[in-house]
Design brief:
Elements (H helix, E strand, L loop, with lengths): L1 H5 L18 H10 L5 H21 L2 H17 L10 H18 L23 H20 L2 H12 L4 H8 L3 H24 L23
Length: 226
């Protein structure tokens, strides 16, 4: 998470684990699990849990809440596995469940705020930094988190799913319940706003730009990239 936040304004979507015919390892494991092969749960867990954990951790800033979200998401998948359709994609389904849980979690006012240095993504390598380097990295991460937090929720969610989680536009649209075009618009606006904030810091401007767009999500309001 730290490396990604440091480069947040210029990130590109990650490659998926889909094979040549478009079926991911998670999809294949879920299909076998849905057919009653309980041994596939371990493979499904390995594919989904790390991604869901990072997603929930960025949302809640709480390790315990992120872990609970992963467990609850997988429990719901288990309970509904007999309804999983062959050739369906499991990732959008899993993220949609996790997102609903996180929305409910936030609405209940149970968000647990932790200091940034207390949160570590176990999937990322650690390196020894000098005191000056560590201070600079912490400052950059804090600024990036502040920029992300100030984005409109709709922009931040689309950006998170596409840029951090590596979901396709179609998958993100399924998770969020919006059109593909709207996902592109929100992701583009979030990227542009974050880049603007980064450029402001590099130029050491005296007034920080607002990260919110003044208008609604209308494609006609803002030129889209090719």
């Amino acid at each position: 998470m730290q490396a990604a936040l440091g480069q947040v304004a210029i990130m590109v979507a990650r490659n998926s684990d889909a094979d040549a015919v478009g079926r991911s390892r998670a999809d294949r494991a879920m299909e076998r699990y849905a057919r009653g092969d309980d041994s596939e749960f371990a493979h499904l867990y390995d594919e989904l849990a790390p991604r869901l954990y990072r997603f929930a951790l960025r949302w809640t800033r709480s390790r315990s809440a992120a872990e609970d979200t992963v467990q609850q998401t997988l429990l719901q998948i288990h309970a509904a596995r007999d309804r999983f359709l062959k050739d369906s994609a499991v990732l959008p389904w899993a993220y949609a469940i996790a997102r609903r849980l996180l929305v409910d979690h936030t609405r209940r006012g149970e968000r647990e705020e932790l200091r940034a240095e207390d949160i570590h993504d176990p999937t990322e390598p650690t390196t020894a930094l000098s005191p000056d380097e560590a201070l600079h990295q912490r400052r950059v991460e804090a600024e990036a988190r502040r920029d992300l937090a100030e984005l409109p929720t709709s922009w931040r969610e689309a950006f998170d799913l596409v840029k951090f989680e590596g979901l396709s536009v179609a998958e993100a649209a399924e998770v969020l319940g919006i059109t593909r075009g709207m996902v592109k618009i929100r992701t583009y606006r979030a990227t542009a706003a974050l880049r603007k904030a980064t450029e402001w810091r590099l130029r050491d401007r005296s007034e920080r730009p607002a990260l919110r767009h003044p208008g609604p999500d209308d494609p006609s309001e803002e030129a889209m990239p090719p």
